[in-house]
Amino acid sequence: MTSKVKSILIDKANEQYTAKLSLIDKTSIPKMGIEVDVLYSTLNYKDGLAITGLSPVVRAFPMVPGIDLVGRITKTTSAEFNQGQLVLLNGFGVGEKYFGGLCQTASLKSDWLIPLPTNLSPKQAMQIGTAGYTAMLSIIALEKQGINKDSGEIIVTGANGGVGSFAIYLLNKLGYSITAATGRVDQTDYLKALGAAHVIAREELSKPAKPLQKERFAAAIDAVGSHTLANVCASLNYGGVVTACGLAQGMDFPGSVAPFILRGISLIGIDSVMRPKADRIEAWQRLANLVDAEQLDKISTEITLDQVIESARQLMAGKIRGRVVVNCQ
Ligand code: NDP
Description:
By secondary structure, the chain is an alpha/beta fold. It has ten helices and 15 strands. It has helices spanning 45-52, 122-144, 162-173, 188-194, 203-206, 226-234, 258-263, 277-290, 293-298, 308-316, and strands at 4-13, 16-25, 34-43, 68-76, 86-90, 105-108, 114-115, 154-157, 178-182, 198-201, 217-222, 236-244, 266-269, 300-304, 323-327.
Protein backbone atom coordinates (compact mmCIF):
# COMPACT_ATOMS: atom_id res chain seq x y z
CA MET A 1 0.00 0.00 0.00
CA THR A 2 1.39 3.44 -0.88
CA SER A 3 1.28 6.06 1.83
CA LYS A 4 -0.14 9.49 1.16
CA VAL A 5 1.21 12.84 2.34
CA LYS A 6 -0.34 16.29 2.46
CA SER A 7 1.14 18.72 -0.07
CA ILE A 8 0.56 21.88 -2.05
CA LEU A 9 0.52 20.74 -5.67
CA ILE A 10 0.80 23.02 -8.69
CA ASP A 11 -0.24 21.69 -12.09
CA LYS A 12 -0.83 22.95 -15.60
CA ALA A 13 -3.09 21.08 -18.00
CA ASN A 14 -4.81 22.48 -21.13
CA GLU A 15 -3.28 25.90 -20.31
CA GLN A 16 -5.15 25.80 -16.96
CA TYR A 17 -2.80 26.64 -14.02
CA THR A 18 -3.91 25.19 -10.66
CA ALA A 19 -2.50 25.14 -7.12
CA LYS A 20 -4.30 22.96 -4.57
CA LEU A 21 -3.88 21.37 -1.18
CA SER A 22 -3.65 17.66 -2.16
CA LEU A 23 -2.91 14.21 -0.81
CA ILE A 24 -0.12 12.79 -2.94
CA ASP A 25 1.47 9.33 -3.03
CA LYS A 26 4.90 9.39 -1.43
CA THR A 27 6.10 7.37 -4.44
CA SER A 28 5.23 10.31 -6.74
CA ILE A 29 8.01 12.41 -5.14
CA PRO A 30 11.12 11.98 -7.37
CA LYS A 31 13.93 10.23 -5.42
CA MET A 32 16.96 12.45 -4.83
CA GLY A 33 18.82 10.36 -2.22
CA ILE A 34 17.77 11.84 1.13
CA GLU A 35 14.19 11.64 2.39
CA VAL A 36 13.05 14.06 5.10
CA ASP A 37 9.94 14.74 7.11
CA VAL A 38 9.51 18.45 6.44
CA LEU A 39 9.03 20.19 9.79
CA TYR A 40 8.77 23.79 8.60
CA SER A 41 8.80 25.64 5.31
CA THR A 42 7.99 29.26 4.59
CA LEU A 43 6.23 31.53 2.10
CA ASN A 44 8.70 33.67 0.17
CA TYR A 45 7.73 36.12 -2.57
CA LYS A 46 8.92 33.50 -5.10
CA ASP A 47 6.59 30.89 -3.55
CA GLY A 48 3.73 33.39 -3.78
CA LEU A 49 4.46 33.86 -7.49
CA ALA A 50 4.61 30.08 -8.00
CA ILE A 51 1.35 29.35 -6.15
CA THR A 52 -0.67 32.15 -7.70
CA GLY A 53 0.90 31.62 -11.15
CA LEU A 54 1.50 35.38 -11.44
CA SER A 55 4.97 34.81 -12.87
CA PRO A 56 6.50 31.74 -14.58
CA VAL A 57 8.59 30.60 -11.61
CA VAL A 58 7.66 26.92 -11.92
CA ARG A 59 9.68 25.16 -14.61
CA ALA A 60 8.20 21.62 -14.50
CA PHE A 61 4.70 20.24 -13.78
CA PRO A 62 3.34 18.89 -11.52
CA MET A 63 5.35 20.75 -8.88
CA VAL A 64 5.47 21.04 -5.10
CA PRO A 65 6.42 24.68 -4.32
CA GLY A 66 8.55 25.81 -1.35
CA ILE A 67 12.14 27.09 -1.85
CA ASP A 68 13.09 26.79 1.85
CA LEU A 69 12.69 23.93 4.32
CA VAL A 70 13.93 22.36 7.53
CA GLY A 71 13.45 18.61 7.83
CA ARG A 72 14.45 15.53 9.80
CA ILE A 73 16.13 12.80 7.77
CA THR A 74 14.16 9.54 7.61
CA LYS A 75 16.24 7.76 4.91
CA THR A 76 19.67 8.54 3.50
CA THR A 77 21.95 7.12 0.83
CA SER A 78 24.66 9.69 1.69
CA ALA A 79 27.44 9.14 4.23
CA GLU A 80 27.49 12.92 4.85
CA PHE A 81 24.20 12.88 6.80
CA ASN A 82 22.64 10.53 9.34
CA GLN A 83 19.10 9.30 9.86
CA GLY A 84 17.37 11.55 12.41
CA GLN A 85 19.59 14.56 11.64
CA LEU A 86 17.99 18.02 11.20
CA VAL A 87 18.88 19.63 7.88
CA LEU A 88 18.25 22.98 6.20
CA LEU A 89 17.75 23.82 2.54
CA ASN A 90 17.46 27.12 0.64
CA GLY A 91 17.19 27.34 -3.13
CA PHE A 92 18.97 25.11 -5.68
CA GLY A 93 15.82 25.20 -7.84
CA VAL A 94 13.80 23.32 -5.22
CA GLY A 95 10.16 24.40 -5.49
CA GLU A 96 10.81 25.54 -9.09
CA LYS A 97 12.42 22.57 -10.90
CA TYR A 98 12.47 19.96 -8.11
CA PHE A 99 9.70 19.12 -5.60
CA GLY A 100 9.99 21.57 -2.68
CA GLY A 101 9.17 22.15 0.95
CA LEU A 102 5.41 22.78 1.04
CA CYS A 103 4.70 19.08 1.66
CA GLN A 104 4.96 16.73 4.64
CA THR A 105 7.82 14.85 2.93
CA ALA A 106 10.65 15.84 0.59
CA SER A 107 13.40 13.98 -1.26
CA LEU A 108 16.60 16.00 -1.65
CA LYS A 109 20.21 15.80 -2.86
CA SER A 110 22.90 15.82 -0.16
CA ASP A 111 24.71 18.63 -2.03
CA TRP A 112 21.73 20.90 -1.37
CA LEU A 113 21.64 20.35 2.40
CA ILE A 114 23.49 21.77 5.37
CA PRO A 115 23.10 20.67 9.01
CA LEU A 116 20.73 22.92 10.96
CA PRO A 117 22.95 25.02 13.32
CA THR A 118 22.59 23.56 16.83
CA ASN A 119 21.56 26.90 18.36
CA LEU A 120 18.60 27.41 15.96
CA SER A 121 15.26 25.60 16.14
CA PRO A 122 13.61 24.37 12.89
CA LYS A 123 10.98 27.09 13.23
CA GLN A 124 13.55 29.84 13.84
CA ALA A 125 15.47 28.84 10.70
CA MET A 126 12.30 29.27 8.65
CA GLN A 127 11.46 32.55 10.39
CA ILE A 128 14.79 33.70 8.92
CA GLY A 129 14.40 31.86 5.57
CA THR A 130 15.97 32.89 2.26
CA ALA A 131 15.30 36.57 3.08
CA GLY A 132 17.46 36.57 6.22
CA TYR A 133 20.06 34.28 4.67
CA THR A 134 20.40 36.65 1.65
CA ALA A 135 20.72 39.65 3.99
CA MET A 136 23.51 37.83 5.87
CA LEU A 137 25.31 36.93 2.61
CA SER A 138 25.13 40.63 1.68
CA ILE A 139 26.65 41.72 5.00
CA ILE A 140 29.44 39.13 4.73
CA ALA A 141 30.17 40.44 1.20
CA LEU A 142 30.49 44.01 2.56
CA GLU A 143 32.81 42.81 5.32
CA LYS A 144 35.00 40.99 2.79
CA GLN A 145 35.43 44.36 1.03
CA GLY A 146 36.66 45.92 4.28
CA ILE A 147 33.43 47.59 5.42
CA ASN A 148 32.88 47.68 9.19
CA LYS A 149 30.72 49.59 11.66
CA ASP A 150 33.22 52.47 11.71
CA SER A 151 33.19 52.91 7.91
CA GLY A 152 30.15 55.23 8.01
CA GLU A 153 26.44 55.21 7.17
CA ILE A 154 24.98 52.15 5.37
CA ILE A 155 21.86 52.49 3.20
CA VAL A 156 19.38 49.60 2.86
CA THR A 157 16.82 49.79 0.04
CA GLY A 158 13.50 47.92 -0.08
CA ALA A 159 13.60 48.38 3.68
CA ASN A 160 10.19 46.92 4.56
CA GLY A 161 10.79 43.82 2.43
CA GLY A 162 12.11 40.50 3.71
CA VAL A 163 15.74 41.06 2.73
CA GLY A 164 15.70 44.77 3.64
CA SER A 165 14.19 44.36 7.08
CA PHE A 166 16.57 41.52 7.98
CA ALA A 167 19.52 43.57 6.69
CA ILE A 168 18.51 46.47 8.99
CA TYR A 169 18.02 44.17 11.98
CA LEU A 170 21.36 42.35 11.49
CA LEU A 171 23.40 45.49 10.68
CA ASN A 172 22.01 47.16 13.80
CA LYS A 173 23.01 44.15 15.91
CA LEU A 174 26.51 44.49 14.45
CA GLY A 175 26.67 48.15 15.49
CA TYR A 176 26.22 49.91 12.12
CA SER A 177 24.32 53.18 11.59
CA ILE A 178 21.63 52.56 8.96
CA THR A 179 19.52 54.65 6.60
CA ALA A 180 16.41 52.80 5.40
CA ALA A 181 14.91 53.71 1.98
CA THR A 182 11.25 52.81 1.70
CA GLY A 183 8.06 53.48 -0.23
CA ARG A 184 6.17 53.07 3.04
CA VAL A 185 7.37 55.96 5.21
CA ASP A 186 4.27 55.39 7.36
CA GLN A 187 6.23 52.35 8.64
CA THR A 188 9.01 54.56 10.03
CA ASP A 189 8.36 53.45 13.64
CA TYR A 190 8.65 49.79 12.62
CA LEU A 191 11.90 50.45 10.70
CA LYS A 192 13.36 52.39 13.63
CA ALA A 193 12.37 49.60 16.02
CA LEU A 194 14.29 47.20 13.75
CA GLY A 195 17.35 49.41 14.03
CA ALA A 196 17.28 52.11 11.33
CA ALA A 197 18.69 55.46 12.48
CA HIS A 198 17.24 57.38 9.51
CA VAL A 199 14.37 56.70 7.10
CA ILE A 200 14.14 58.25 3.62
CA ALA A 201 11.42 58.02 0.94
CA ARG A 202 12.23 55.65 -1.92
CA GLU A 203 11.31 58.44 -4.43
CA GLU A 204 14.64 60.13 -3.55
CA LEU A 205 16.36 57.23 -5.32
CA SER A 206 13.91 55.93 -7.89
CA LYS A 207 14.27 58.59 -10.64
CA PRO A 208 17.04 58.63 -13.34
CA ALA A 209 20.39 59.19 -11.64
CA LYS A 210 22.98 61.95 -12.10
CA PRO A 211 26.30 60.14 -12.67
CA LEU A 212 27.93 61.56 -9.51
CA GLN A 213 26.09 62.89 -6.48
CA LYS A 214 27.02 64.06 -2.99
CA GLU A 215 28.95 61.33 -1.13
CA ARG A 216 26.52 60.10 1.56
CA PHE A 217 27.03 56.40 2.25
CA ALA A 218 29.98 54.14 3.02
CA ALA A 219 28.11 51.08 1.77
CA ALA A 220 24.71 49.82 0.66
CA ILE A 221 22.56 46.70 0.55
CA ASP A 222 20.25 46.96 -2.45
CA ALA A 223 17.27 44.69 -3.11
CA VAL A 224 15.68 47.00 -5.67
CA GLY A 225 17.92 47.42 -8.77
CA SER A 226 17.13 49.84 -11.64
CA HIS A 227 17.39 53.63 -10.99
CA THR A 228 17.60 52.99 -7.24
CA LEU A 229 20.83 51.02 -7.62
CA ALA A 230 22.21 53.65 -10.03
CA ASN A 231 21.45 56.45 -7.53
CA VAL A 232 22.97 54.44 -4.68
CA CYS A 233 26.20 53.93 -6.69
CA ALA A 234 26.32 57.68 -7.45
CA SER A 235 25.93 58.52 -3.71
CA LEU A 236 28.60 56.21 -2.28
CA ASN A 237 31.67 57.66 -0.60
CA TYR A 238 35.07 57.22 -2.20
CA GLY A 239 35.89 53.46 -2.05
CA GLY A 240 32.27 52.59 -1.13
CA VAL A 241 30.69 49.17 -1.68
CA VAL A 242 27.16 48.13 -2.70
CA THR A 243 25.70 44.62 -2.85
CA ALA A 244 22.91 43.90 -5.35
CA CYS A 245 20.54 40.98 -4.77
CA GLY A 246 17.17 42.06 -6.13
CA LEU A 247 15.07 43.70 -8.78
CA ALA A 248 11.98 45.01 -6.97
CA GLN A 249 12.10 48.22 -9.05
CA GLY A 250 13.46 46.56 -12.20
CA MET A 251 16.10 44.35 -13.74
CA ASP A 252 17.78 47.22 -15.58
CA PHE A 253 20.83 49.08 -14.29
CA PRO A 254 20.71 52.55 -15.88
CA GLY A 255 23.91 53.79 -14.21
CA SER A 256 27.20 55.35 -15.23
CA VAL A 257 30.80 54.20 -14.82
CA ALA A 258 31.62 57.57 -13.18
CA PRO A 259 31.43 56.39 -9.53
CA PHE A 260 33.47 53.27 -10.43
CA ILE A 261 36.31 55.08 -12.19
CA LEU A 262 36.31 58.33 -10.22
CA ARG A 263 35.47 57.10 -6.71
CA GLY A 264 36.67 53.48 -6.95
CA ILE A 265 33.36 52.05 -5.73
CA SER A 266 32.58 48.30 -5.96
CA LEU A 267 29.36 46.52 -6.90
CA ILE A 268 29.08 42.97 -5.57
CA GLY A 269 26.39 40.59 -6.87
CA ILE A 270 24.63 38.32 -4.37
CA ASP A 271 23.13 34.99 -5.38
CA SER A 272 21.69 32.81 -2.65
CA VAL A 273 20.31 30.02 -4.85
CA MET A 274 23.45 28.20 -6.08
CA ARG A 275 25.74 29.34 -3.28
CA PRO A 276 28.55 26.89 -2.32
CA LYS A 277 28.02 24.88 0.87
CA ALA A 278 30.87 26.53 2.82
CA ASP A 279 29.30 30.00 2.29
CA ARG A 280 25.88 28.68 3.37
CA ILE A 281 27.30 27.17 6.56
CA GLU A 282 29.16 30.40 7.38
CA ALA A 283 26.06 32.59 6.79
CA TRP A 284 23.73 30.34 8.83
CA GLN A 285 26.19 30.08 11.71
CA ARG A 286 26.47 33.88 11.80
CA LEU A 287 22.65 34.13 11.74
CA ALA A 288 22.30 31.58 14.54
CA ASN A 289 24.67 33.62 16.70
CA LEU A 290 23.01 36.99 15.94
CA VAL A 291 19.22 36.60 16.00
CA ASP A 292 17.00 36.72 19.11
CA ALA A 293 14.05 34.35 19.46
CA GLU A 294 11.79 37.17 20.69
CA GLN A 295 12.45 39.37 17.66
CA LEU A 296 11.85 36.45 15.27
CA ASP A 297 8.47 35.80 16.91
CA LYS A 298 7.55 39.48 16.50
CA ILE A 299 8.22 39.51 12.76
CA SER A 300 6.57 36.23 11.79
CA THR A 301 3.28 34.35 11.84
CA GLU A 302 2.82 30.58 11.74
CA ILE A 303 0.31 28.88 9.42
CA THR A 304 -0.41 25.27 8.39
CA LEU A 305 -0.33 23.69 4.92
CA ASP A 306 -4.13 24.11 4.78
CA GLN A 307 -3.73 27.91 4.92
CA VAL A 308 -0.93 28.25 2.34
CA ILE A 309 -3.00 28.98 -0.80
CA GLU A 310 -4.98 31.79 0.84
CA SER A 311 -1.84 33.25 2.46
CA ALA A 312 -0.03 33.21 -0.90
CA ARG A 313 -2.87 35.27 -2.41
CA GLN A 314 -2.64 37.75 0.47
CA LEU A 315 1.15 37.94 0.10
CA MET A 316 0.81 38.80 -3.59
CA ALA A 317 -1.82 41.44 -2.74
CA GLY A 318 0.72 43.11 -0.40
CA LYS A 319 -1.45 42.37 2.66
CA ILE A 320 1.21 40.57 4.70
CA ARG A 321 4.04 42.21 6.62
CA GLY A 322 6.88 40.10 7.97
CA ARG A 323 7.59 36.43 7.48
CA VAL A 324 5.11 33.57 7.09
CA VAL A 325 6.29 30.25 8.52
CA VAL A 326 4.51 27.05 7.47
CA ASN A 327 4.18 24.17 9.93
CA CYS A 328 4.18 21.18 7.55
CA GLN A 329 3.33 18.36 10.00
P1 NDP B 1 9.87 41.71 -0.74
O1 NDP B 1 8.76 41.70 -1.72
O2 NDP B 1 9.63 41.24 0.65
O3 NDP B 1 10.49 43.20 -0.63
C1 NDP B 1 10.78 44.00 -1.70
C2 NDP B 1 10.71 45.45 -1.22
O4 NDP B 1 11.18 46.29 -2.26
C3 NDP B 1 9.29 45.92 -0.92
O5 NDP B 1 8.89 45.58 0.39
C4 NDP B 1 9.45 47.41 -1.10
O6 NDP B 1 10.00 47.93 0.09
C5 NDP B 1 10.49 47.54 -2.21
N1 NDP B 1 9.88 47.79 -3.52
C6 NDP B 1 8.86 47.12 -4.09
N2 NDP B 1 8.58 47.63 -5.29
C7 NDP B 1 9.44 48.67 -5.48
C8 NDP B 1 9.63 49.62 -6.52
N3 NDP B 1 8.89 49.62 -7.63
N4 NDP B 1 10.60 50.53 -6.38
C9 NDP B 1 11.38 50.56 -5.27
N5 NDP B 1 11.24 49.69 -4.24
C10 NDP B 1 10.28 48.77 -4.35
O7 NDP B 1 11.04 40.89 -1.40
P2 NDP B 1 12.35 40.32 -0.69
O8 NDP B 1 12.87 41.29 0.29
O9 NDP B 1 12.13 38.90 -0.29
O10 NDP B 1 13.32 40.29 -1.95
C11 NDP B 1 13.82 41.52 -2.45
C12 NDP B 1 14.40 41.29 -3.83
O11 NDP B 1 15.51 40.42 -3.73
C13 NDP B 1 13.43 40.63 -4.81
O12 NDP B 1 13.65 41.19 -6.09
C14 NDP B 1 13.84 39.17 -4.79
O13 NDP B 1 13.53 38.53 -5.98
C15 NDP B 1 15.34 39.31 -4.57
N6 NDP B 1 15.96 38.16 -3.91
C16 NDP B 1 17.10 37.70 -4.47
C17 NDP B 1 17.80 36.69 -3.89
C18 NDP B 1 19.08 36.28 -4.50
O14 NDP B 1 19.53 35.17 -4.24
N7 NDP B 1 19.69 37.13 -5.30
C19 NDP B 1 17.31 36.01 -2.69
C20 NDP B 1 16.13 36.63 -2.10
C21 NDP B 1 15.47 37.66 -2.73
P3 NDP B 1 9.40 49.27 0.74
O15 NDP B 1 7.94 49.02 0.93
O16 NDP B 1 10.15 49.45 2.01
O17 NDP B 1 9.67 50.34 -0.29
